[in-house]
Amino acid sequence: MARTGNATSRRPTGTSGQPRKRAGRLQSAGVIREAATALFLRNGYLGTSMDEIAALAGVSKQTVYTHFADKERLFTELVLGNTRPVDEFIPVLTHLLQDPDDLEENLRELARRYLGSVIQPPVLQLRRLVIGEAGRFPELARTYYERVPERVVATLATSLQHLAERGLLRLDDSLLAARHFAALVLWIPLDRAMFVANGEPPAAAELERLAGAGVRVFLAAYGQA
Predict the structure, then answer these.
(1) Among 133, 163, 166, 167, which residue's Cβ finds the most Cβ atoms within 10 Å?
(2) Residue 186: closest CA among 161, 205, 207
(3) What is the pLDDT of residues 62-96, one digit of tens each?
(4) Which among 109, 121, 93 is positioned nearest to 190, based on CA atoms?
(5) 3-state per-residue secondary structure call for 174-207
C-alpha cells in the first residue's frame, strides 16, 4: 500500500534535538557551579583556578568559558545566586509576626528559625568568603549585604512596626529595633563562627538558650508592660 503524504509531516524537522541540547547546557552549567562553589569556599578566590574548576566538574576548560566569561563573573554569579536560605526564611518571618496569639512564643520561634537559617556551615562559609574578598570586590560585598542580611532586617522592621501599631510593642525606630533583635539572637554564635572556622557548631540546646535569652532581652526593651 502506498504511503500517504501525511507521513512527511511526521518526519523530524531538525529542531527536536534543541531541547536536549539546552538540557545538556544547563546540566553542564550546574556541574560547573557546584565545582566552583566547593573550590571557592575551600580555597578562596585567589586560591582557585579555572583549570581546577574544570577538572573537578569533569569538563573541559573551554566548556567552563562557554558558560562563564571569566573567573570573576563566575564568582559573582555564585555569591549572588546563593540566597535560598533568605528566600525561605522571609515568608516564615512574615507569617510568625503577622497575627501572633502569643507574641513572646512567636518571637522565640522566629529566633530559633533565624539561628537555624544562619548558623549552618554553607551559609557561614559563604559569609566568610564574601567578607574575605570584600576588599577585592567591594560592590559585590555591598550587594550581597543588601540582598541577604539587610533584606532580613528590613522585613523584620516592617513586621515589628505593624506590631507596634497594634499596641503590642513600644518602638521609636523599627529598623533599630530589628537590628537589636538580630544582634541579640545571632551575634554570639555568628561572631564565634567567623573566627573559628573549624570549630564545632553550637549544640541545639545552646541555640535554644540563645534564642530564648535574646527574646527576653528584646521584650524587656520593647515589649508593652
Answers:
(1) 163
(2) 207
(3) 999 999 999 999 999 999 988 888 999 999 999 99
(4) 121
(5) HHHHHHHHHHHHHHHHHHHHHHCCCCCCCCHHHH
Task: Give CA–CA dist 85/181, Å, rounded.
Answer: 19
Q: How far apart are CA 18 and CA 7, in angstroms?
A: 22
Domain extent listing, the chain: 20-71, 84-222
Q: Tell me the fold of 20-71.
A: Arc Repressor Mutant, subunit A (1.10.10)
Of the candidate CATH numbers 1.10.357.10, 3.40.47.10, 1.10.4100.10, 1.10.10.10, the domain formed by 84-222 belongs to 1.10.357.10
pLDDT digits (tens, 9 = 90+) for 206-216: 999 999 999 99
The predicted structure's pLDDT at residue 18: 57
Q: What percent of the chain has pLDDT over 90?
A: 77
pLDDT at 96: 96
* SS3 state of residue 90: helix
| Phi-psi sector, 167: left (phi>0), alpha (psi -120 to 50), beta | left
Cα torsion for 154, 157, 158, 163, to the nearest 10°?
Answer: 160
